[in-house]
Amino acid sequence: MIxxxxxxxxxxxxxxxxxxxxxxxxxxxxxxxxLELLLNAVNLTLVAFNRQHQDDxxxxxxxxxxxxxxxxxxAVGLAIVLALYxxxxxxxxxxxxxxxx
Amino acid sequence: MGAPLVLDNVQSLPFxxxxxxxxxxxxxxxxxxxxAHGARKRVGLLAIMFATLGAAGAQAAFALAHDAPAVxxxxxxxxxxxxxxVFRVLFAFxxxxxxxxxxxxxxxxxxxxxxxxxxxxxxxxxxxxGLSFMAMSRHLLMIYLxxxxxxxxxxxxxxxxxxxxxxxxxxxxxxxxxxxxxxIMLYGMSWLYGATQSxxxxxxxxxxxxMSAAQHGVPPVVFLATVCMLAxxxxxxxxxxxxMWTPDVYEGAPTPVTAFLSVGPKAAGFAVLVRFFAEAxxxxxxxxxxxxxxxxxxxxxxxxxxxNLSAIGQDNVKRMLAYSSIxxxxxxxxxxxxxxTTGTAAIVFYALTYCLMxxxxxxxxxxxxxxxxxxxSVGAFRGLGTxxxxxxxxxxxxxxxLTGLPPFAGFVGKFYLFAALVRGGGNFTWLxxxxxxxxxxxxxxxxxxxxxxxxxxPAGASDAPVxxxxxxxxxxxxxxxPTVALGVYWAPLYDLVARTVGMVP
Amino acid sequence: xAVDLTLVSFFALAALTLVSGAVVAFSRNIIHATxxxxxxxxxxxxxxxxxSADFLAAVQVLVYVGGTLTLILFAVMLTxxxxxxxxxxxxxxxxxxxxxxxxxxxxxxxxATTTAWxxxxxxxxxxxxxxxxxxxxxxxxxxxxxxxxxxxxMIGAVVLARRAVKRNWEKA
Lengths: 101, 505, 172
Fold this sequence. Notes:
- The complex is a heterotrimer of chains A (about 100), B (about 500) and C (about 170).
- Chain A is mostly helical and about 100 residues long.
- Chain A contains 3 helices and no strands.
- Helices cover about 75% and strands about 0% of the residues of chain A.
- Chain B is mainly α and about 500 residues long.
- Chain B has 2 domains: about 1-135; about 135-500, no CATH class.
- In chain B, strands 1-2-3 form a 3-stranded mixed beta sheet.
- In chain B, helix 2 (about 15-35) packs antiparallel against helix 3, helix 3 packs parallel to helix 5 (about 115-135) and helix 7 crosses helix 10 (about 245-250).
- The longest helix of chain B is centred in the middle third of the chain and has 32 residues, at about 165-195.
- Chain B is globular and about 75 Å long.
- The N and C termini of chain B lie close together (about 5 Å).
- Classes of the chains: A mainly alpha (about 100), B mainly alpha (about 500), C mainly alpha (about 170).
- Chains in contact: A-B, A-C, B-C.
C-alpha cells in the first residue's frame, strides 16, 4: 500500500503550484483556476489522512462539502467576473485599479 | 465546568429556534419577492424582514435572560451557551439596523435599474444565519461551512451596486482574496485533522494537550496548521497581513453593505477565534506554555499600526473608516495576547461597543452621501454642525467613542482590554499595551479631521441645510444613546458578558 | 520481479495531476490552462479511487469536471476574445512567488517527515454507504446548511448576472 507521506507530498506540491500560480499570474480566470488547485490539494490531504482512520469517514465528508462549496464559490465568482468584464472589457487583475490609493 | 449535555438531531431542534426562524424568513422573502407587486410588496418585505429578525433576536435574548444551561447540539457540532446567545442577539440587531438603512424609501424602488431591496434582504438574512452558526460552531466542518455561507453571500452583496465599476471591482478582490484565505485555512484544518484524527474542537483540544505534554511544547504540525487557519480567520476579521481587500471592498460596496460587513462578519470571526483558542488550543496567557500569546500579540500590534497609519492620509471617509475598522480588529486581538477570562470578556465587550459605534459612523456617512449625490469626502462634512446639528452630534459621539475617549462606550471597551493586558503582567504584554495606547493617540488625528470639518470649517455659500431622512436620524440617535449610556453605566452589560464567557470551556 | 501495479498507477496519476496543475498555473494560453484543469481533476479523482474514496471520486468527476470546469470554460469563452487569447496571460513577481513557495514547501516537507503520523492505514473498503448514513444522520445539519448555501449562492449569481444583462440592454 502507498504510504501516507506520498499523498501528502503530491498534495503539498499541488498546493505550492496553486499558490505560485495565484501569486505570479495577473489573469483573473487563471487566478480562479489556481484557487481550484488549492482546494483539490486540500481535499487530497483530507482523504489521505482519512485512510488512517479505521472506521470513520469525516475526512471524506469534509472533502465532499469542500467540493460543494467550491462550486457555489465558482458560480458567484464567475458571475462577478462577467459583470466586471462587461463594464471594463478586461480580465486582468492589475487593470482593476479604480480603487488604488 | 463539566462536559455539557450532548443532544441528538431531533432533541436539538428547539435550541436552534432563532436559526430556524431565519431560515423560514429566507423562504418567505423568496416567495414574496416572486408573487407581490407595488406598494404592497414593499410593506410585506419590511414586515417579513423585521418580524423574522425580531423573533430570532427575541428567542436568543430569552435564552440568555433565563440562563439556559449550556448544551452541545447535533452530536457535538454546535454549542448552545450564553456566549453564543450574546452573539445571536447582536447579529439579529445588526442585521435589523442595516435592513433599516437599506429600506426602500419609495414604492418605485423596484424599477429596472434600481436595486431590488427584496433580494438584498434575502441575502442579508442568509448572512445573518451564517453568522449565528459561526458563533455556535464547535466543529471544524461547521466552522468552515458557516464561514463560507457568510463569505460567498458577502461577495454578492459587495457587488450589489448597479453600474458601479467600483462595486464589482471591490467584490472581485473580495472573491479572489477570500478564496485564497479559505484555501489556506482549509489546508490548515486538513493538517490539524491529520494530526489529531478529529474535527470536533473538544477532541482536538484533548489530543493537542496530550501531544504537547508528550513533546514538552506545541508540536510543529499543530503550530503550522494553526498559523494556516489564522490566515482564514484573519481574513474574516481583516487582521494584517490579510487585510488587503478591506479598503477596496468597503469603499466599493453600497454603504449599508459596508456597514454590515464591517461589524457582522468581524464580530463572528472573533467569536470563532475565541472558541477555537479556548476549546481546541486551550490557550493561556503564559508565554512559556505555548506560542499563541506571542503570535496574537504580534498580529495585534501589526494590525493596529497598519490600520491607523493607513487611515491618516485618507480623504474618503468610507475608506478611512475601513482602515479604522482594521485598527479596531487589532485592538480586539490584544485580548488574545492574555487569553484569560478577563481578556476574553474584554474582547466580547469591545466587539459589542464597536458594533454600535461603527454602524453609527457608517450610517451618518450614508445619510449625508444620499443628500450630496454620493460625496463621501471629508470636505462633504464641512459645517455639518450647523447644517444638520443632530446628525453632526451623533457623528461626534461615534468618532469620540471610536477614538476611545471618555465618557463613551469605546473608552470602557479599551479600558477593559488594556486592564486585562496589564493584569497579565510580563514585559511582552506591557510592550503590546504601549503600542496599543500609542495607536489610540494616532487614531485621534484622522477622526479629528472629520470633527474639525464638521464644527470648525464654515459651510460654503452653496451648502444648503441637509435634509436627513427621518428614519436615518432616528437610527443614528438610537445608536448614539447606548454609545453614551454604556460609557457611563456599563456594569450590567460587562457582568453579563463576563458571566457568559465563563461558560466557554 | 513483478512490478507493483499500485505504485506504478500512483506515480502515473501523481504525474498527471502535477503536470496538468503546472500547465494550469503557468501556461500563457488560457484555453490550454482550462483543458489542463481537466487532467488535474481527473488525476485527483484517480488518487481518490486509490485511497478507496469511491464516492468522492464520482463526485469529483460529476461536480468538478461536469459543473465547475464547464462554468470556467464558459467564462473563458465569454470574456477572452480570440485574438488576445495568447497575450492575456502575462506573469509578474516570479522571484518573490518562487521564494515564497519554496519556503512553504520546505516547511511542509520538514513537518511531514518529522511528525509521527498514526500508523496502520485501514484496509480498502467502500465508503459510499457510510457517507450516506453520515449525511442523513450525524451530519444532517451541515448537509442542510450546505443546501441553504447553494440556494443563496444560486440566487446571488442570478441577481448579478441579470444585472449585467440589464446593463447591456440599457446601453443599446
